[in-house]
Amino acid sequence: MSAKIQRLAEVDRIIHEPARLMVVALLAAVKEADFRYLHQSTGLTKGNLSVHLCKLEEAGYIVIEKTFRGKYPLTICRLTERGRGALDNYRKIIKGAL
Amino acid sequence: MQNASSLTGSSDPKAVARQLMQKAYNRDGLPEIAVGLIFLFASGLIYAPDVLPRGSMGFKLAVLAFAFLLPFLIFISPWALQWVRRRYFMERVGYVQHKPIGWRWVGFGIALGALLALALFGVLPRLPRLNRWLLAGTGLLGGALIAWCGRLPRFVIEGIVMAATGVFLAVAGVSLEIGFAILLGFQGLVTLVSGSVVFLRFIRQPTETGE
Fold first, then answer.
1. The whole model's pTM is what?
2. Using the beta-carbon criterion (under 8 Å), do B95 and A42 form an inter-chain contact?
3. CA B64, B135, B47 angle in degrees (round to 5)?
4. What does residue A78 show for φ and ψ, rounded to 5 degrees?
5. Is the separation of the CB atoms in A55 and A20 below 8 Å?
6. First vs last Cα of chain A: how many Å apart?
7. Between chains, do A29 and B17 touch, taking CB under 8 Å as contact?
């Protein structure tokens, strides 16, 4: 039992932050989503969301693609395999400890 | 930050993501408007054979529309909704590409529904006052589905309305066709009004620009 709780120390701090966990969880549930969808779904401010997306991109958990749909600019985010693996690992650690 | 605070270590990220997506999906009221219109259409198609002369062109069209057009509309409604959102409201709702439908689960659901229907056909004819059971059962089951699928307060209220209407119609002893027409028509109206109110409030919000 104590070994499972001690594993909490190994939890990925990039994903463990609540706002980033929300973003990663949302992106895991869809194929891709743009900045506006994430902004409205999470309730984070634009600046806050931008910072968290940058951190996730630096960690290699998401890829960000800037494109257009007609004349409408889109910033599309997708979860990478590494990000998916990190989220699965995070869930296992948390579930095992609680 | 209300949404983030619900994500504690004891919450499953998948469950939280589902909640957030559910709220996002129903934010503009368009799904409710679509469901309301389909219910009203179904209500009209159920009522039409009751008032139209048997064998008339209108009678035949109503039966065919109920058998083929209505299921087709129900089937394509998610894609139609997605098209409308991307065509007219992308600046407001953003862009999302959901994962493909799990057709295995759809098949499983259809098979389960068919088995349930077969089981009910074995039980229902033995019940006295079958009409009342069907109306009440449809109201209660439909109401429970609406409340469970929507998972927002207004959907719970709509579910309660549908359940109460079904039970009321069953107690009133109306015929099956009239009962279903009233049940679906009334529920369609309630859902359409609710969805329209949400949509108007959504449209009146100022559009945010920039990212």
1. 0.81
2. no
3. 35
4. -135, 145
5. yes
6. 10
7. yes
Residues 6+ apart with CB under 8 A from B106: none
Whether the CB-CB separation of B157 and B167 falls below 8 Å is answered with no
ipTM above 0.95, yes or no: no
Backbone angles phi, psi at B209, to 5 degrees: -115, 155
Cβ neighbours, 10 Å, residue B96: 24
Closest residue in A to B23 (Cα) is A41
What is the distance in angstroms between the Cα of B16 and the nearest Cα belonging to chain A?
A: 8
Spell out the per-residue pLDDT of chain B, length 211, in tens: 444 445 444 467 888 888 888 888 888 999 999 999 999 999 999 999 888 888 888 989 998 999 999 999 998 999 999 999 989 988 888 899 988 777 777 777 778 777 777 766 666 666 677 778 888 989 998 999 889 888 788 999 999 999 999 999 999 988 888 999 999 999 999 999 999 999 999 999 877 665 5
Q: Considering only CA atoms, which of B134, B133, B143, B122 is closest in space to residue B187?
A: B143
Q: Cα-flanking dihedrals φ and ψ of residue A73, to 5°?
A: -75, 140
Tokens of B174: 């109306």
Do you know the residue count of chain B?
211
Sort out which chain B residues have CB atoms less than 8 A from A74's CB and list them: 95
| CB A43 within 8 Å of CB B4 | yes
